[in-house]
Amino acid sequence: MASPRKNKELSIDKQALATLSFAKEGIFHPVDKLMTKKEAREVDETGFYKGIPFPFPFIIAPFGKKNSDLLKNAKKGEKFDFIVDGEIKGHIVLDEVFEVDKKRRIEQVFGTYDTSNPEVQLFLKRLGDYAISGEYELDFDDIKNIKKTIQEAKKKVNPKKTTSIMMSAKPFHRAHERLIRITLEKTDLLVIFLLKPYTQDLLSYSLRLKTLQYFVDNYLPKNKVVIVPFENTYIFDGHNNAVLDSICAYNLGCDKLVLGRNHSGIGMYYDQNEMKSILDRYSSIDIEVEMITEFVYCNECTTLVSKNTCPHGQHHHIKYDADTLMELLEAGILPPAVLMRRDISAILLSEMFPNRFKNIQKIYDNIFPTSGLLESHDEKDFYLELMKLHQTMSLT
What we know:
The protein is of the alpha/beta class. The protein has 3 domains: 8-139, Sulfate adenylyltransferase (Roll), CATH 3.10.400.10; 143-292, Rossmann fold; 307-390, no CATH class. It is built from 13 helices and 16 strands. It has a 5-stranded parallel beta sheet, with helices on both faces. Helix 8 (205-219) packs antiparallel against helix 11 (342-352) and helix 11 crosses helix 13 (379-390). The longest helix has 16 residues, at 142-157. The protein is globular, with a radius of gyration of 24 Å. Mean pLDDT is 88; it is low at 265-276.
């Protein structure tokens, strides 16, 4: 696709490119293309596409005045190149161009038109005036690679049951560990989809992947867990993301999806005094969905427990709150081992604050016992030994 530019050009971002690839690679099956105006209206009214549940119309509306001006005068059959960061990343042969009702589109994705919501504000900024449909081709292998990785993992263990978990691991903590271990007890292969956002963060995706992979490699049975990046594009921002997660997990070869009850897309509600979720409306999706209760540390039980099985009140519970743990890490504070495994904390802090200490070797030699031999130590070693001192009991 590096051919000279001869076609008209539509500028899109990598999120839109990845979103288009989900459909192209069959991950949104039976949605395998951009919907026409008629199809979009039908999905909006019924919540189904070709008899299968789909939460909202699958369309893209390239944003920007240049895109709008081009599409306003576009004709059926015209070929447009997709331009991402200045490079040709695919093309589309236009079948139809139609205006987008932006207010309705926001309501479809988020369930409300609340322009004070930061996610809605971001969505509005990237939502153009015209949607397009037609046959398209892409130069984007990320989704293909996910499929290939899962297929190769299945060949190694020939699983009768494959279960999936979607997680951010921002940061990876003890409750994540418990969730993974409980899930592994009931499956042959666990696929962890590590959500890959398109925003910059102090805790980078590569660092989150490194800590999760470290735990899998060192503390879990070999070949029973595979980690794959999951392109967490704008289409998953709304209140239907649990439904989309289920559709994607199923089409990627998983028999089961495990979600926490506080998952942003569950939408718990009561129907005739029975607790239900948004997933009950899409029960025909052919995948088992299990919702796991919240894990806490109880200072009476002195262990990690499910809130459903602990008899003690909330005032005895320590929560595994990701935002709070990130505040500690961002301040350079070593989280207690009851919240995060000490070697995970050491990896995070040593990479988040490189060269933090002027003379790490001198500090290490002065406050930690050694073997008596000359040894070199890095910041990860420092944090590991520091945690051991925190846990020394004789003088506390």
